Amino acid sequence: MQQIKSNEKMTVKTKVNGKDYEVDVEPRKLLSDFLRDDLGLTGTHVGCEHGVCGACTIIIDDHAIRSCLMFAVQIDGSEIETIEGLQKKELGLELKEAFSKHHALQCGFCTAGILMSSVEFLYEENNPTEREIREMLSGHLCRCTGYEGIVNAIQEVSEKNDKGR
After folding, report:
1. Does 15 score more than 90 pLDDT?
2. pLDDT band at 163 (very low <50, low <70, confident <90, very high)
3. How many Å apart are CA 156 and CA 49, to the nearest integer?
4. What average pLDDT score do residues 120-138 get?
5. pTM over the 0.85 mark
6. Any alpha helices (H) in the chain, and if so which ranges?
7. 3-state secondary structure at position 162
8. DSSP character for 14?
9. Which residues contact 21 (CB under 8 A, 6 or more apart)?
10. Do 66 and 127 contact (CB within 8 A), yes or no?
11. Cα–Cα distance for residue pair 16/3, rounded to 1 Å
């Protein structure tokens, strides 16, 4: 394994929301900070910085992950989708509309992460039960909504769509 000095930058090549990037980053820079600071994608929120709250959830190579738990150098060669890219997908737009309709957001801090996890979840689960939706949401902290509207919004979209990848 190659020894890297802490101040030595590494080149990361990745695709984020369909756009190719090649950026030099410090080895210890968190992925959440890379997205926000280097790429200007501030929709990825940073809450707890321990992977507990879920606010920083993004999709890497079709899997929802916590960006505060990864270093930017770990995404070399990966394809990433953030909340900004979700606006270009039909399922993302349907979820955002349903969240609005069901009052599934208040302050909105947790919403981006929940939407990202919901997209992955709905691609994997056809017609999930309320319990399955709540289990998926257990990885997200929301202090405002009580989750009822969020569950209702996800249920509505899942019933309206029987989407697969």
Report:
1. yes
2. very low
3. 31
4. 93
5. yes
6. 31-33, 83-86, 90-101, 111-124, 130-137, 148-160
7. coil
8. E
9. 12, 13, 14, 15, 39
10. no
11. 28
